[in-house]
């Protein structure tokens, strides 16, 4: 009976969504184009190098080398093996969903247990510096100084989330309790060498697999970006988003947050970019209220990112709910850090800059935004070129097998 109700519910939601697309075709097209532009101009070209590099480093044993080196650090802090450091660092550098993809690869290679992989996925999916410093701070708020505050609160909050998640499943996964070994370069090099020898593929095949696997994942990411861009627009047009925001106004009132932020907050829960942009346009005074809301949205990741992570981990035994719980926890921790660090990392820096820097260099402060503009110019070329390379690799493999 339960499964029958679930089938009817899923079918009903899908049919309802199809009718909204028919009723608002122009708005759906506009939202699709906006999501597509974001994907092929920025997301694809910025994530592709990280994905390919991660695949190659895994194949050549470099990740295993890092695992041995960072074992004495990662095990006490997060209760995960040292190889988790690679997912953590790459996740911070390139943004979501890199951490989930690397965690899945480590799980497929049995370098992590299921519980260790779930702990790792919970805190390695963070926003990229390009998005925080470029898009939000400079692009939306036109204030480069906000980047330091939002970045520190986001990444520090993610670290605290990982420390909290170290206790998840500790009583079940007894195998994770290991001695804290000293750092040994010799042992690390031997582990790297053994890992490389186990991979019998020639170099050309390793490169081809890295490109194809990365493009396949990014195509999936693009689909979710476009889908949730349309869903967010449809929910707003049919009045569901405003209705939900009315319910959240009571929560905002209890937290002494401006009620005007409730609607942008709901939009941000679905799509971070749209929510952050709407919050910046509200011009709330004090600014701290807007920053608290954005910090929570960044930590929560948004349902669009969560759907991407769910799709990536679905082919393994990694469960989704620890990641979802960690996203809520990260949102609250980042918001609290924003309250405590707002004065030292933003207000005090403003006073210092005004007294000691009579001339402000706008070019230097817009470095992250210049990177975004550069990606928007060459991004489509990189995307199209990458697909051409992928088609060439597939064609050659088909010819060799025939």
Explain how this protein is built.
This protein is mainly alpha-helical. The chain has one domain. Helices cover 80% and strands 0% of the residues. The chain has 18 helices and no strands. It has helices spanning 2-23, 25-59, 62-78, 84-94, 98-108, 114-123, 129-140, 146-165, 185-198, 203-237, 240-254, 262-270, 272-281, 287-300, 302-313, 321-356, 362-365, 367-401. α8 packs antiparallel against α16 (321-356), α11 crosses α12 and α13 (272-281) packs antiparallel against α14 (287-300). The longest helix is centred in the C-terminal third of the chain and has 36 residues, at 321-356. The chain is globular and about 60 Å long. The termini are far apart. The model is unreliable at 354-364 (pLDDT under 50).
Question: What percent of the residues sit in helical stretches (DSSP H or I)?
Answer: over 70%
Based on DSSP secondary structure assignment, what is the total number of beta strands? 0
Unreliable stretches covering 5 or more consecutive residues: 354-364
Structural class: mainly alpha
Number of domains as seen in the coordinates: 1
Describe the sheet with the most strands. none
Distance between the termini: 49 Å
Element-level helix/strand string = HHHHHHHHHHHHHHHHHH
Give me the number of helical elements: 18
Mean pLDDT: 86
* Rounded Rg: 22 Å
Percent strand: under 5%
Shape: globular
């Amino acid at each position: 009976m339960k499964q029958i109700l679930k089938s009817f519910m899923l079918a009903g939601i899908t049919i309802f969504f199809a009718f909204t697309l028919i009723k608002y075709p122009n708005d759906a097209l506009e939202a699709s184009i906006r999501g597509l532009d974001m994907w092929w101009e920025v997301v694809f070209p910025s994530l592709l190098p990280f994905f390919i590099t991660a695949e190659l480093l895994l194949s050549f044993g470099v990740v295993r080398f890092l695992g041995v080196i960072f074992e004495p650090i990662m095990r006490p802090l997060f209760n995960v093996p040292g190889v988790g450091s690679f997912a953590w660092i790459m996740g911070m550098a390139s943004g979501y969903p890199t951490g989930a993809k690397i965690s899945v690869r480590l799980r497929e290679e049995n370098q992590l247990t299921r519980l260790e992989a779930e702990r790792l996925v919970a805190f390695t999916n963070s926003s990229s510096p390009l998005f925080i410093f470029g898009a939000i701070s400079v692009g939306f708020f036109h204030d480069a100084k906000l980047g330091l505050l939002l970045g520190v609160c986001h990444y520090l909050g993610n670290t605290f989330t990982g420390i909290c998640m170290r206790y998840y499943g500790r009583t079940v996964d007894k195998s994770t309790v290991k001695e804290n070994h000293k750092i040994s370069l010799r042992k690390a090099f031997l582990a790297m060498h053994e890992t490389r020898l186990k991979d019998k593929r020639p170099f050309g095949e390793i490169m081809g697999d890295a490109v194809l696997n990365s493009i396949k994942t990014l195509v999936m990411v693009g689909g979710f970006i476009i889908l949730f861009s349309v869903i967010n627009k449809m929910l707003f047009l049919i009045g569901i988003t405003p209705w939900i925001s009315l319910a959240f106004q009571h929560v905002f009132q209890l937290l002494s947050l401006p009620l005007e932020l409730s609607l942008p907050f709901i939009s941000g829960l679905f799509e971070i970019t749209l929510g952050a942009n709407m919050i910046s346009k509200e011009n709330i005074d004090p600014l701290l209220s807007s920053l608290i809301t954005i910090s929570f949205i960044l930590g929560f990741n948004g349902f669009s990112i969560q759907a991407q992570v769910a799709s990536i981990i679905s082919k393994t035994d990694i469960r989704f709910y620890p990641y979802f719980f960690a996203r809520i926890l990260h949102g609250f921790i980042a918001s609290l850090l924003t309250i405590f660090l707002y004065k030292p990392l933003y207000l005090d820096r403003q006073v210092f800059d005004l007294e000691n820097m009579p001339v402000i260099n706008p070019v230097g402060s817009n470095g992250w935004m210049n990177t975004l503009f550069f990606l928007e110019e060459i991004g489509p070329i990189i995307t199209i070129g990458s697909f051409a390379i992928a088609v060439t690799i597939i064609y050659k493999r088909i010819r060799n097998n025939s």
